[in-house]
Specification:
Shape: elongated
Helix content: 40-55%
Strand content: 15-25%
Number of strands: 11
Structural class: alpha+beta
Number of helices: 15
Amino acid sequence: MHIGLNKINHLYQLKNYFNIRIYIIPISTLIYFVRYVALLVIFFTFQYGSTLMSDKTYHPRQFLIYIPIWFYFNEIFFFILLLIRSNLDKIKYKETSTKYAILFVGNTTKGGIIMLKFQDNNTTVIATFEDFILTAYVIIDELYHQFAPPEVTRRRHILNAKLSDSEIITISLCGELAGVDSENAWFSFVKRNYRHLFPQLCSRSRFNRTRRALMQTTELLRQKMISVFPIPVSSYYIVDSFPLAVCKFGRARYCKAFRGHGADYGKCPSKKETYYGYKVHALITLEGYIASFEITPASTDDREGLRDLADHWSNVTILADKGYVGKNMKQEMQEKNICLFALKRSNSKENWPKSVRQLIFKLRRRVETVFSQLSGQLNAERVLAKSFQGLCTRLVNKVLAYNLCIALNSIFGETCELGKIKKLIF
């Protein structure tokens, strides 16, 4: 990622939030210094080495023989520089458009994991959308180098890639937050307006293929984000689902792209409609952070989705609506050390007291707000994907982008609610 001199001050502001050291070194000085050091080392090595190994006098003109060797060591130096840029975990090499090298070195550890440390103040360093792209890249790149599996970071031909994986994920997240739902339109917009940040953009088709291939890595970053960010998370969660129609109801019988991947007909009680596609189940904290989610066929019962989500949780309290009632369901959750509070139907003989019902209804408003943001700003319910993998990739990017905004609001100590993410973008 190339960064101009006008953004170096922003990086120095970022170092006050992230516990990292920033060094700015002129690229030309670094290259010429290493070149001349290598030249001197080769010269003195062959000069004194030949004198010690033989009794003959060493003539300086014989140094001309070793000029090709110097070029060989020069190529080795650039290969090592490229290797450092791509594979080193704690040091990331960045080349700027103004020929400067910026080194980020993390130095805070906790429990064997490099943690992102932040200061407690109310100063927001994000003034423009370009600042947001820079901030998002620093966070994503740090998470990527900490948690990305070796089979991804050391895969074949990764050193020849024009865009790093962190840059591809960052561009995808920023596009989702900007509300540009078309992948082609967003890629063209970045190419036209942010070429100074990404001067070595790859082709659009390669960008989309790599983005889909990084879906599991992106989901892993979403899962690990809560472990490195000071996000306020309570032991109370809200479970709910929203419909994900892949096409209009009238064209459902002609839609063949998702038929072999579990898409079917389902009903949405809140919208009072029948649709064709999938259902997204989500487990959300009271603060609005999406802790877990999954995609199931549209006809799947909400309780089946909760069973899958609850496999990774224990010792928590989950608030649910009327779709999750049932004695067997409550017993299953108790076996997993989960306390389930579900709103009961109006004709139920054992209903909760009025004060408890009002409290559950009030706390459950958060999940409606989160779904409204996912649908309104990030276009989660608008499906433009042509394959099931593309659909899952877009949804994973949308959820990670939303959680990133929640984390940034928590980091910067915003006086507004954590769920107000538009302030960061617009």
